[in-house]
C-alpha cells in the first residue's frame, strides 16, 4: 500500500547494489504480482542515476516479460548504449534473482531550442466537481485501494460519439495528482509520472465492449509500455489523463494516453498493449 506521498517517494529511492546496479523496495500489497507501474518508475530512476542532471528523459520503452513477486525486491542493471552530445540512451534489466521480469530502454535529451506545437485536447469537468476514488472504491479495481497517496477523479463517460468527440465510446478520462506537494526534483516527477501512467490505462480497452472498469470476468496483464515526455510537468498538480482505444483483437488491446496539465499543456503521450483474456 502506498498510503502517503513519503511512501511514494521512497519507492524511487533506490539502493546502490554495485556498478550501475540498483535495488528498489516494494510496498506491502495484497496482490499476487507486482504492479508494473512500480517497475517503470524504478527502472527509469535507475537509468536516471547514470545520466547527468542536464539531460531529462524524453522517452522510454518497456516490455513486461514475467509477473513479478511482490515479496521480492527488484534489482535494476543499467547499461549505457549511447552517450552523445545531445542524447544519452540506457538499457535497464529488471530482475528478481535469476528471473528477468522487465526490460526497458530509456533516452535522455538536453534541452535545446526548436519549433513547438501540440494538438488541442478534449475538455473535462474541473476535478473539484468530481468525487475522489477513495470515496467510491467499490467502483474501481481493487488495486486503487492501495493508492491513497494519489487523488484520482474519474470523468463521467460520454457513451455516444459526436462530431466534436468521436472517441467518446472508446475512451476514458481521469484527473490525478498526489495528495501532498513533492520536492522540486524534475527526475522524481518524471519517474512518478511513469509509475502512475500504468494505473488506469489498460482498463480502457474494455470500454468499447461495455465492460465496467472492474473488469469482472476478465484477466488483464500489461505486455509493453511506452512513454514520450514532451514537456516538464508536476505530479503534485492536476493532470488530465485522456485514454483511448485504437484497437482490440486476438485477446490483445492497445491503449493510447495523453497527459495534460490543467491549462491543457501536453506533457506526455503513452501507448500500452496488454492481454485481456476472459476467465474460464
Automatic annotation (TrEMBL):
<comment type="similarity">
    <text>Belongs to the C/M/P thioester hydrolase family.</text>
</comment>
<dbReference type="GO" id="GO:0047617">
    <property type="term" value="F:fatty acyl-CoA hydrolase activity"/>
</dbReference>
<dbReference type="InterPro" id="IPR029069">
    <property type="entry name" value="HotDog_dom_sf"/>
</dbReference>
<dbReference type="Pfam" id="PF02551">
    <property type="entry name" value="Acyl_CoA_thio"/>
</dbReference>
<feature type="domain" description="Acyl-CoA thioesterase 2 C-terminal">
    <location>
        <begin position="170"/>
        <end position="275"/>
    </location>
</feature>
<dbReference type="InterPro" id="IPR025652">
    <property type="entry name" value="TesB_C"/>
</dbReference>
<dbReference type="Pfam" id="PF13622">
    <property type="entry name" value="4HBT_3"/>
</dbReference>
<keyword id="KW-0378">Hydrolase</keyword>
<protein>
    <submittedName>
        <fullName>Acyl-CoA thioesterase II</fullName>
    </submittedName>
</protein>
<dbReference type="InterPro" id="IPR049449">
    <property type="entry name" value="TesB_ACOT8-like_N"/>
</dbReference>
<feature type="domain" description="Acyl-CoA thioesterase-like N-terminal HotDog">
    <location>
        <begin position="31"/>
        <end position="109"/>
    </location>
</feature>
<dbReference type="InterPro" id="IPR042171">
    <property type="entry name" value="Acyl-CoA_hotdog"/>
</dbReference>
<dbReference type="InterPro" id="IPR003703">
    <property type="entry name" value="Acyl_CoA_thio"/>
</dbReference>
<dbReference type="GO" id="GO:0006637">
    <property type="term" value="P:acyl-CoA metabolic process"/>
</dbReference>
<dbReference type="GO" id="GO:0009062">
    <property type="term" value="P:fatty acid catabolic process"/>
</dbReference>
Amino acid at each position: 500500500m502506498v498510503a502517503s506521498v513519503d511512501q511514494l517517494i521512497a519507492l524511487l529511492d533506490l539502493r546502490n547494489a554495485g556498478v550501475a546496479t540498483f535495488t528498489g523496495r516494494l510496498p506491502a500489497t495484497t496482490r499476487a504480482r507486482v504492479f508494473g507501474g512500480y517497475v517503470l518508475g524504478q527502472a527509469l530512476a535507475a537509468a536516471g542515476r547514470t545520466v547527468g542532471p542536464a539531460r531529462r528523459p524524453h522517452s522510454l520503452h518497456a516490455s513486461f516479460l514475467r509477473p513479478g513477486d511482490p515479496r521480492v525486491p527488484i534489482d535494476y542493471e543499467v547499461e549505457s548504449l549511447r552517450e552523445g552530445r545531445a542524447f544519452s540512451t540506457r538499457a535497464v534489466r529488471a530482475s528478481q534473482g535469476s528471473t528477468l521480469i522487465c526490460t526497458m530502454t530509456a533516452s535522455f535529451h538536453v534541452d535545446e531550442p526548436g519549433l513547438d506545437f501540440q494538438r488541442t485536447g478534449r475538455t473535462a469537468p474541473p476535478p473539484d466537481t468530481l468525487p475522489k476514488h477513495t470515496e467510491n472504491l467499490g467502483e474501481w479495481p481493487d488495486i486503487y485501494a492501495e493508492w491513497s497517496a494519489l487523488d484520482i477523479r474519474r470523468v463521467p463517460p460520454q457513451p455516444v460519439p459526436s462530431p466534436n468527440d468521436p472517441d467518446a465510446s472508446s475512451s476514458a478520462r481521469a484527473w490525478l495528482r498526489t495528495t501532498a506537494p513533492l520536492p522540486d526534483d524534475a527526475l522524481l516527477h518524471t519517474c512518478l509520472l511513469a509509475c502512475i501512467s500504468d494505473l488506469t490505462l489498460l482498463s480502457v480497452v474494455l470500454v468499447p465492449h461495455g465492460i465496467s472498469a472492474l473488469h469482472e470476468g476478465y484477466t488483464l496483464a500489461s505486455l509493453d509500455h511506452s512513454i514520450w515526455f514532451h514537456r516538464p510537468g508536476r505530479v503534485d498538480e492536476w493532470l488530465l489523463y485522456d485514454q483511448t482505444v485504437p484497437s482490440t483483437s486476438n485477446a490483445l488491446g492497445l491503449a493510447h494516453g495523453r497527459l495534460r496539465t490543467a491549462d491543457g499543456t501536453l506533457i506526455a503521450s503513452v501507448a500500452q498493449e496488454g492481454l485481456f483474456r476472459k476467465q474460464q
